[in-house]
Amino acid sequence: MHVNRLSIPLIAALSLPLLAGCSASGAASGIELLDQPATEADALPSGSNAPDIKPGTERFAAHAQGHTFFVALPADEEDSASMPARPGVCIVVAEDDFTACGGLPMHAMGISFGSVQVVPDDFDTSALTSAGWKQVHRNVLISGLHPAP
Fold this sequence. Notes:
Blueprint: H1 7-20, E1 59-64, E2 67-72, E3 89-93, E4 98-102, E5 106-110, E6 114-118, H2 126-130, E7 134-137, E8 140-143
Antiparallel strand pairs: 1-2, 2-3, 3-4, 5-6, 6-8, 7-8
């Protein structure tokens, strides 16, 4: 394969966004909320089960129709009950004991609550909101949300 000299800077420039997403903490993960100091509001409700998040990284994002949404960092391999270490972020729906982790943007669905999208700070949500998604936090959008029992 022949690569001309003009292609190398183009390839390098196109690769920067991919490399920038490799870190797994706070603003580097695309969610500035994860860099904020924890407050009382950030504590998961008593009895919530979220074994796949790194303890102490959960941050309250929104409350809608009886569901409380938190963002968090994924657990390190030694902290996780069932998953190895991985990059990205997690969404926790506290009342449903639901946790999903992955890269951004991330879409998760649960039978008991509906659909949730987690997006980075600089994400243009206009296409999602035009398609009926409701933005409940800078980084969290919901669709088809079922009221909590």
